[in-house]
Amino acid sequence: MANAGRNTAPQTQSSALARTPLDAHERARFFVSERHHGLECLTATFRTHVYAPHTHDTYVVGIIEAGCETFRVNGTQLYAGPGDVCVVPPEVVHDGEPYGVSGYAYRMTYPSLGLMQAVAEDATEGRSREPPVFSGILMHDPALAAEIARAHRAADAGAPALETDQRLHVAFVKLFARHGRDGAVRGRLDRDPPAERGPVARALAFLDAHFAEDIDLARLAGVAGIPRTRLIRAMARETGLTPHAWLTDRRVRAARRMLLDGTPPAEAALTCGFCDQSHLNRAFKARVGVAPGSFRAAARAR
């Protein structure tokens, strides 16, 4: 949530953050994901900062990572802590401040009406065209809070397009399914995904041929010929891996072959589509059990 000064006119998060004074123990970082309808994001730690009553022309969706924030919405005082998911609809007046001397740390997203409608329409394959309405402002849902946090961190870290797209899309779809008043998304996800061998085969062939490229979810769904939500679920059913996980695994296998041939890890990382060597290190060790450098050294010592 953001400081809007002393009025309740809708604010962009960028302008609001610019006029937010922070003390020496506080931090705030704002960034925008243009590919996701200009999605504004904020990660911050506040100890003394008090938000004035304000509104946004977007939704506010976020989670508390540590501590406790208290805020008033529609005359009700709420208290948000770890494991809670906060959802404030557009144009709804709210404030916010730390509860307790230790303050709080949080991650917030400000999805536009257009983004939320696009995700809901994709998840329901056109059956849900209205702006999503949720069952409450504050919901205790640790699993969903963790999902939102992972999506936010991926966007914050500048992760590959497919990872960021998939994590954000899945987080919002699960938000609709678990806490949306429209049961269309929940109804879709409650049913087992149908067999989609043709679309999945097309997606896999494309990923295999273009694994070193920064592929986004919309492009992959277009190749497969099915909506994004359906593609994610279908790939998980058919292969045991989501699109992002399958692509990462494909890149690790390519890097492994290069390392066996003596290629330095940094070169293998960039050639195989990883952001940098540290990205390769994490993915490689998670799947092979050792770091790329150690794997290369052992291969050369044979």
Description:
It is a single chain. The chain is α+β, with helices and mostly antiparallel strands and 302 residues long. Among the domains are: 13-167, Jelly Rolls (Sandwich); 246-300, Orthogonal Bundle (Arc Repressor Mutant, subunit A), CATH 1.10.10. Helix content is 46%, strand content 19%. It is built from twelve helices and ten strands. It has helices spanning 13-18, 113-124, 142-156, 161-179, 183-190, 197-209, 217-224, 228-239, 243-260, 265-271, 277-288, 292-300, and strands spanning 27-33, 39-46, 51-54, 60-67, 69-73, 76-80, 84-88, 94-98, 104-110, 138-140. A hairpin with a 5-residue loop joins strand 1 (27-33) and strand 2 (39-46). Helix 3 (142-156) runs antiparallel to helix 4 and helix 9 packs across helix 10. The longest helix has 19 residues, at 161-179.
Question: How would you briefly describe this protein structure?
Answer:
This protein is α+β, with helices and mostly antiparallel strands and 302 residues long. It is built from twelve helices and ten strands.
Keywords, please?
alpha+beta; 12 helices; 302 residues; DNA-binding; Jelly Rolls; HTH_AraC; four-stranded antiparallel sheet
